[in-house]
Known about the structure:
The protein is mainly β. The protein contains two helices and ten strands; from the N terminus they run βααβββββββββ.
Amino acid sequence: xxxxxxxxxxxxxxxxxxxxxxxxxxxxxxxxxxxxxxxxxxxxxxxxxxxxxxxxxxxxxxxxxxxxxxxxxxxxxxxxxxxxxxxxxxxxxxxxxxxxxxxxxxxxxxxxxxxxxxxxxxxxxxxxxxxxxx
Length: 134
């Protein structure tokens, strides 16, 4: 079993700008592209805590798998409803951005880091963000 709990530093991305634009959030693309977040994942029993620090701001999401929770974007202060489920060596998070638009993130963990695969229910555009374990 791969260790999920830990700290991760963003190192690279693929197709991220096109992905943000495909969500209709082109105005946020520059903000996201400049960010180099550090993600810390903690576990307390069934509850998981994800702390994201980016551009001097820190946001925390606390959830139990399968339950709806509020998730805030670090750079914008926007809050969305998300549901995260455990899948294999990681998680799958579905975030409701609007009535008919969901952003999907699949977190894949390895001994050396984390890869986040990004997609949505409305577009074929996919992206990837790679983090190294600290």
